[in-house]
Every structure is written in C-alpha cells, then in structure tokens.
Amino acid sequence: MDRGPTMTTLFTNRSSFQTWRDSIPEHQSVGFVPTMGALHTGHLSLIEQAKSECDVVVVSIYVNALQFNSDDDYTRYPRTVETDFQLCAGAFVDAVFAPLKDDVFPESNVEIRTPSSDALGFEGADRPGHFAGVATVVDRLFTLVKPSVAYFGLKDYQQVAVIKNMSAQLHPVIAIRACDTVREADGLAMSSRNRFLSQSGRKSAASLNVALKKAVSLWNDGKSQAQELIESVTDDISTDSAIDVQYISIVRNGTMDQVQAVSENDVVIAAIIVDGVRLIDNMSFANA
Question: Are the C-beta atoms of residues 82 and 69 closer than 8 Å to each other?
C-alpha cells in the first residue's frame, strides 16, 4: 500500500487520542506497533511493515511496570521519548500514543490477565509474572487503539506466542503480524538492552548468533536430533567465560512445545547473560 509523507501527532493522554482514533473512517486499516520506547532499527522495521500494509499507523510508547520483576529494572529502563518521537516522525507515523499510567490503567485495582501455557518456562520461569504483565498491557492497548493489525518482532519469540494466544481469545478481529528479527552488523539481535554492554561484552554476545547459525547449518546438513543441535550451540558459546548460558532449547514453530526431532521452521531459542545483561535470541530452521 502506497502512503505519502504525513505529519506525526503526539498524544500524551487517553482523551485526545481517542478523539483522534474515533475520527478515522471504519474502512481504513490501522496498523499498531506497541513499544516501550528506546526505539531502534528493529522497531523502525516494524513501522515500515505496518506502513506498507495499513492506511494509518500508530506507535505507542509506554514503559509497563507490570512486566518488570524489580523496581531497579523498571527504573533502569531507558526513557527517550523525545528521540523516539523524532524517529517516528521521520518514519511518517500518523500518531504516537505516549500515555501516562492513569490513561492505560485508570482503575485502582488492575485485573491481571492470565497468559496461556506458552508463558510457562524459559523467560516465564526466570521472570515470574512478566508475561501476565505483557498480556495485561497489550490487551489494554488493543482496547484503546483498536488496530486492524498489530506488529511484533520475532526476537521476542515467546512473547509473540503469548500475545497471539491472548489476542485470539480477547481480540479475534486483530491480526497479529510477527516480523523477522533485525540484527546489528555483528549479528547481535537489536535490543534496547544492547546499550548496556561493554565493548568486550558486545563481542561475546555476538557469538550467540554465530552458534545459532551453525546449528541451522548442521540441520541443513542432515542432523535432526534436537539434543545434538542444542549441545552444538551450548558448546560453542560456553567456551567464553563471559557468557552465562540460561537456556538453549528447540520448540515447534509458533509454540513453546519442545521437540526431539527438528522439522523445518522449528525454532532454536536461547537466553544468555553478558555483563549482567540478559539477552535473548532465536533462529528458525529453514531451507535457506
């Protein structure tokens, strides 16, 4: 869909945003990119995808306290709203919605959504309550924005699985579009957390992508047993003492179900800690 340049409007309260949202004709499609700010090229790729498919594009910027496991993590999360808005304006986003907490959760007692079983294990095990917080805020943002299509990066593979399930139950008219991971030049998956890495930590972190690619290559060469491929990734990155391996696993495409024999489009998922920074990544097994 061709879209010419447009002026970007910043909405910082629920009332003004809803007035604007209600003015959009029903026949126009609305693409939505929910973010917590600290935007990078990965977010911009989601925006570009939304622009190519929808008549109107909305980006939200809201740091959701419900999905953090400690006050320190919540406080530490980078807030760069002015820069984020300029990036959105440069990408010709129609609206940036940067609400306050009371705009998203005006009630004193918030009903926390119970996520699907996809939230169990992996990131869910390390961060209890995280995906409940994600499901709760995305549900609320979907209700406010009323998008036709919502865009999420596959770097957060487990999050996408949880959100797809939540949306199917509560917002079945919204299409969920999972978009490919965008990587730095050294292969590191783009993340707002990358800025916290030291130069040496950055080099260590980038080795995860190399190990994942090697596992996919081994699968293409005929090795199909999940345990063998997992051991390959683990062995490759464990040689670096700066890397603390949290988990390596292989799951069925679109789910968090672990597999023993790997098929095309199954996904190897991984989490590591470098410089005290938790980093996640994944890669699909496909004939590439």
Answer: no
Grade residue 287 by pLDDT with cuts at 50, 70 and 90: low
CATH homologous superfamily, domain 192-284? Pantoate-beta-alanine ligase, C-terminal domain (3.30.1300.10)
Catalytic residue IDs: 43
Joined tokens for residue 147 = 């998008």
Q: What is the mean pLDDT of residues 211-237?
A: 97
**Tokens encoding 262:** 């790997």
Between 78 and 27, name the one with better pLDDT.
27
Which position has the token pair 């009903």? 111
pLDDT for 168: 98
pLDDT in tens, 24-61: 999 999 999 999 999 999 999 999 999 999 999 999 99
Q: Give dist(CA 38, CA 202) in Å, integer.
A: 18
Q: Which of 14, 1, 174, 4 is nearest to 94 (CA)?
A: 4
Up-side HSE of residue 9: CA atoms within 13 Å toward CB?
12
Span 9-179: which CATH code? 3.40.50.620
- DSSP-assigned letters across all residues of 103-134: HH--SSS--PPPPPGGGSSTHHHHSTTHHHHH
